[in-house]
Amino acid sequence: MLASFSVMRSKKLYRRFIPFSGKFKEFEFIIWLIPSTLVFISGLLIASTQRQVDYASWYQHWITAGFGLVLTLLLAQVPLERLRSLLLPLYIITISSLLAVRFIGTSALGAQRWLSIGGINLQPSEIAKITLILILAALLERQKFNNPIQLWRPLLVILIPWLLVFIQPDLGTSLVFGAVLLIMLYWSGMPFEWGLIVLSGLVTSIFSGVLPWFLFVWIPFVGFMAYRSLPNKKLVAILTMGMQSLIAAVTPWLWMNGLKDYQRDRLILFLDPGKDPLGGGYHLIQSNIGIGSGGFFGTGLFQGQLTKLRFIPEQHTDFIFSALGEETGFLGTILVVIAFLTLILRILNIARDAHTDFESLVVIGIGSMFMFQVIVNIFMTIGLGPITGIPLPFMSYGRTALLVNFTSLGFCLSVARRGRSFNKNW
């Protein structure tokens, strides 16, 4: 039985809101079948987007997936508890590799995110995702949340890699770090209200740019929430309002000095791509045209005109979903969304049935990573979110990201095997 009441509480909430999750309990083949199918389909789509040039991305994608499947099989045999002694070295290596990117990294498309090792480009920020999930799980498994000060350890652990990734610049991955941290904190027992107060900082930064007068209402409201839900009510409420005011004051400076020009353009053009149809808004407009032209059944594989003429730059990476929409239509996109939903539900089910709090937190971190990336990438592609550079798991081309995804599945399968054995013995 799990030792921590907080994780047990999260699992009870999970059962309440997803009552049919037990039906997925014995279907481990879902962990194998869905990612393999997504990789196969995306390989065809990558070949379609690259068919006018002599480019080998599609079979590199499949070969990488083959190595990934072997890695998944090997990791599924290893109990996660054996990784505890490696967490500190992994964290040091992760920080060192992110620092190395800053000084000797290779650049592409205006960002310096890769290390070239033996002729192979690795993206340390992708590896940092799974490393941080493991370390946060070890920190939070025994954590009790009686005071917000207790958040300093997980925040400190994630702060350094977050800053190193943000300045690459890689806004998408830094957003993934934040989303995973919040969900893991809640799963480990952090009160829901604390999460709302943390997220309120994001709302404050948005209001400071688009509706500054509303801050006179919003900041006192956040202070009232802090007064109602946190200890040392008066002091914490004052500190919370002070922090919100600081965020509001600093945001305009960060907007001008902390973001690159193209990042500001992406956020602005998300609201109105037509302002620059041949520049920053080009990706969004062409992506929407491509998805719309697919209709219900699509144009057929290798038949998409926008894909064929390469109207969307780098479509085989972040915008692979637009190729899917054009060539397989609404039906194909819905089936892929259902596949992702099924995979994520299975991962959540594994987290619920995990043998230990550490294992449960690792799996919930992996599930939240996949869920956030899928939602943001699809929303970005169809114009419901700004372009952030977040890849679609198992489908976007990217060898490091694909291997990290399969590594994550190996950890999930390892926990599933132990959890199932434990439940049967119990």
TrEMBL record:
Leader sequence residues: none
Keyword Acetylation set for record: no
GO-annotated molecular function: lipid-linked peptidoglycan transporter activity; peptidoglycan glycosyltransferase activity
Associated pathway: Cell wall biogenesis; peptidoglycan biosynthesis
Subcellular location: Cell inner membrane; Membrane
GO biological process terms held by the UniProt record: cell division; cell wall organization; peptidoglycan biosynthetic process; regulation of cell shape
Membrane-protein topology: Multi-pass membrane protein
Entry's EC annotation: 2.4.99.28
Catalysis: reaction(s): [GlcNAc-(1->4)-Mur2Ac(oyl-L-Ala-gamma-D-Glu-L-Lys-D-Ala-D-Ala)](n)-di-trans,octa-cis-undecaprenyl diphosphate + beta-D-GlcNAc-(1->4)-Mur2Ac(oyl-L-Ala-gamma-D-Glu-L-Lys-D-Ala-D-Ala)-di-trans,octa-cis-undecaprenyl diphosphate = [GlcNAc-(1->4)-Mur2Ac(oyl-L-Ala-gamma-D-Glu-L-Lys-D-Ala-D-Ala)](n+1)-di-trans,octa-cis-undecaprenyl diphosphate + di-trans,octa-cis-undecaprenyl diphosphate + H(+)
Any one GO CC term of the record: cell division site
Transmembrane segment boundaries: 29-47, 59-78, 90-115, 127-143, 155-188, 194-223, 235-255, 329-348, 360-384, 396-416
Keyword annotations of the record: Cell cycle, Cell division, Cell inner membrane, Cell membrane, Cell shape, Cell wall biogenesis/degradation, Glycosyltransferase, Membrane, Peptidoglycan synthesis, Transferase, Transmembrane, Transmembrane helix
Family: Belongs to the SEDS family. MrdB/RodA subfamily.
UniProt cross-references to HAMAP family, sorted A to Z: PGT_RodA
Record function comment: Peptidoglycan polymerase that is essential for cell wall elongation.
Listed NCBIfam families: RodA_shape, rodA_shape
Descriptive protein name: Peptidoglycan glycosyltransferase RodA
Organism: Prochlorococcus marinus (strain MIT 9211)
High-level lineage: Bacteria, Bacillati, Cyanobacteriota, Cyanophyceae, Synechococcales
